[in-house]
Each structure stands twice: as structure tokens, then as C-alpha cells.
Design a protein that fits this description.
With about 400 residues, the protein is mostly helical. It has one domain: MFS general substrate transporter like domains (Growth Hormone, Chain: A, Up-down Bundle). Helices cover about 75% and strands about 0% of the residues. The chain has 16 helices and no strands. The longest helix is centred in the middle third of the chain and has 52 residues.
Length: about 400
């Protein structure tokens, strides 16, 4: 959990200064900077999509510990490259390398699955999300403050955090992959297409993967567009953007670290997913038309309540695969998450540019949030059409 928190801090540190960094390196307008931001995010995600199942398969074979440590060391070097980059192409190279090694979240989730009993998985996956949220509280907050001293300062800080994280993991992290659950490495299941095809054959997994994917695309409206949206709509500074993202992170930590346990106990996993979708649809619709920065600050933490969806879906899927394939499952989820990161930044930044640029048919900076609301509706329909779970292996799915 501390490893995930420190990693999230490193990611969150750089978010508030990305618009200014791209303007500094590339020039142009804020709209063009948003498009380049989408390209960098997409390149990072393409690498995650291609290598997610490979990293998962490696962790099933050789263990979680070496995968975490190597990825963190390379991540530190990647932040240093971005800290000194003087051209957009060097930034692009840094994101390519960073995308390949950004396996921390998926490997940590597989680690959590290794040490959790079946009925504990949803709540424990929530702890992973809470750790990420806690890191995202401190990361943007510190990044916004460091941004006042220059666009490069947060990248040096992120490199230092990743290096400290690697040392911490080396000292305290024990291995959880034993010979009982160790799975031989297979190339045909170490690519996103082969791994997805294998998992989709398992009963009930296919629709859940679709719901997980649509949710991720919708949710990525925040990292893809929030900095540009709030600067355009409210004229917020990097420090104010950092504070708002910190507020969002606080709520994610509260929801996934504590509130989700109460929700699961009261409603069970199935109703938790349904209510999460409905709440997010309402939040996205409200943010799309908000005209006051103060109201946006109120809506930001409320929107985080929908974060109960991810751990509930992860638990449903984790119970449907064997102990020797938890890394593979998390690798596939990483690929789907990465595919969402490929689509969402290009989609959301393009919609933002279309509705804020000189030729915009209607001035509506919040248009990307309406797209997210529509995607949440599609995911909810797919989930509701999924056959009701049955059998002992899935009894927690409908437990109220």
C-alpha cells in the first residue's frame, strides 16, 4: 500500500504543470498543448496495453517483488529524462519507456489478491485504490506548489520519489508467489490479445471486462482534461488545480479505504456497481455545465464516490480465475486500462478543443464530461444485461 501511495505521488506531482511544460517546449495555444498532452498520454498507454499481460505473466512466473523493483528504478530514470527534456520528441521517448515499466498498480493488485481470502478481495482491492488516492492527494498538492518554482521541479521530485520507493520495496517487500501458485510463462498468453481471449472464455468474465473498460474510459476524463478544463473555465493556477485534485484524491481514499466496506456490507458487489454508475452519471452531467469554480470544488469530491465500482468489479473477476493466474488477470486489466488511456485522452482533448477553439459550434468546455456520462450509461446497460451470478465461487457477488 505504501509502495502504491508513493508511486501515485510521483504521477500526481507532474499533473498540474503539464500544460505549462508543453507550452514551454512546443509553444502554440492551450488548445494545441491539450492535443499534445493527449498524444503523450496515448503513447504511454499504448506501451502499457502491449506490455501489461507480459508483465503480469512474468510476475506469475518469477514473482511480484522483482517486477515492482525494476519498474520503479526505470520509472525514476524516465522522470529524470522528462525533467531535462528540451524537445517534444524527448518527452515522447520518456513516455514510451515509462509506459513499458508502469506495472506497479497491476502487480500490487496481484500481490493483494495473493494474500486475500475470496470474501476479502473487494475491500482489499479498495485499499489499493485508497493508497493511490492518498498519493494523489499529496502529489498534485506538492506538484502545484513546486510548479511555482518552474515546470521542471516536479519531475525531479517525482524521480526522487520513485527511487526512494524502490529502496523501500527492496528493504521490506516479501515475495508472495510460491511454487504452489507459480505458473509457467507462455508467450501465447503474454500478449493482450491472447490473454484477453483466454480470460474472456471464463464464465461471466467477458461482460465484466467490457464494463471495466467503459468505466475507465469515462473516468479518464479527469487526468486527460481537468487541468485544461479548469484553466479555461475558471482561470485556475497550477496551485489551484493541484488543490482540487488533492481534494479528489482525499475522497477516493475515503471511499475506497473505508466507505466501500460499508457499501459492500449493505448492498453487495452487484448493487454497489449499479449505484456507482448512477452516481457518476449525475456527477458528470453536473460538472459539464458548472459555471462556478466554488461549485466545481464541491462536485469534485462528490464525483469520487463512484470509485466504489473498480474494486467491486476486480473482486468479481478475481474470484473467477485461479490463484496461478492473478497476475495474468491484473495484466489484462492493465491492458484494458491502457486502452482506455489511449482512447480517452485523444477523445476528451479533441472534444475539448472542438468546443473551446475558434471554430467551436457552441462554447462548452465541459463537453468531455457529457461524453463520460454517456459511456457510464452504456456500461450500466451491459452490466444489467449480464446474467445473474450463481454458484459458490460467486456467491459474494449478490450477497447483501
Amino acid at each position: 500500500m505504501i509502495t502504491v501511495m508513493l508511486d501515485a505521488m510521483g504521477i500526481g506531482l507532474i499533473v498540474p504543470v503539464m500544460p505549462e511544460l508543453l507550452l514551454e517546449v512546443q509553444g502554440g495555444t492551450l488548445a494545441s498543448a491539450a492535443l499534445w498532452g493527449g498524444v503523450l498520454s496515448t503513447v504511454f498507454a499504448v506501451m502499457q496495453f502491449l506490455f501489461g499481460p507480459f508483465i503480469g505473466a512474468i510476475s506469475d512466473r518469477y514473482g511480484r517483488r522483482p517486477v515492482l523493483l525494476v519498474s520503479l528504478m526505470v520509472m525514476s530514470l524516465q522522470y529524470l529524462v522528462m525533467a531535462v527534456a528540451g524537445s517534444i520528441w524527448l518527452l515522447l521517448m520518456g513516455r514510451i519507456v515509462g509506459g513499458i515499466t508502469a506495472a506497479t498498480g497491476a502487480t500490487a493488485s496481484a500481490y493483494m489478491a495473493d494474500i486475500s481470502k475470496p470474501h476479502e478481495k473487494a475491500a482489499n482491492f479498495g485499499l489499493i485504490g485508497a493508497s493511490f488516492g492518498a498519493g494523489f492527494v499529496l502529489g498534485p498538492l506538492i506538484g502545484g506548489m513546486l510548479g511555482e518554482y518552474g515546470t521542471r521541479a516536479p519531475f525531479f521530485a517525482a524521480a526522487a520519489l520513485a527511487a526512494v520507493n524502490a529502496v523501500f520495496g527492496y528493504l521490506v517487500l516479501r515475495e508472495t508467489v510460491t511454487d504452489r501458485i507459480r505458473r509457467p510463462f507462455e508467450w501465447r498468453r503474454a500478449n493482450p490479445f491472447g490473454a484477453f481471449r483466454h480470460l474472456a472464455r471464463l464464465p461471466g468474465i467477458g461482460p465484466l471486462l467490457v464494463v471495466y473498460f467503459t468505466y475507465q474510459v469515462a473516468f479518464y476524463v479527469y487526468p486527460a482534461i481537468w487541468s485544461f478544463f479548469t484553466q479555461e473555465r475558471f482561470g485556475w493556477s497550477p496551485q489551484m488545480i493541484g488543490l482540487s485534485l488533492a481534494l479528489f484524491g482525499v475522497m477516493i481514499a475515503v471511499v475506497q479505504g473505508g466507505l466501500i466496506r460499508l457499501v459492500l456490507r449493505r448492498f453487495g458487489e452487484r448493487l454497489t456497481v449499479i449505484y456507482g454508475h448512477l452516481f457518476d452519471m449525475a456527477a458528470f452531467g453536473a460538472i459539464a455545465f458548472v459555471a462556478s469554480g466554488a461549485v466545481a470544488l464541491v462536485l469534485t469530491p462528490l464525483a469520487a464516490i463512484g470509485a466504489v465500482i473498480t474494486p467491486a468489479l476486480q473482486a468479481m473477476m478475481s474470484r473467477s480465475v485461479g490463484d496461478d493466474a492473478q497476475g495474468e488477470l491484473q495484466g489484462v486489466l492493465t491492458s484494458l486500462n491502457a486502452l482506455a488511456m489511449i482512447i480517452a485522452p485523444l477523445l476528451m482533448t479533441s472534444v475539448f478543443a472542438a468546443f473551446t477553439g475558434p471554430g467551436a459550434p457552441v462554447y462548452l468546455p465541459g463537453a468531455p464530461f457529457l461524453v463520460s456520462m454517456l459511456l457510464m450509461g452504456i456500461g450500466l446497460v451491459v452490466f444489467l444485461r449480464r446474467p445473474a451470478p450463481c454458484g459458490a465461487a460467486q456467491q459474494g457477488d449478490s450477497l447483501a
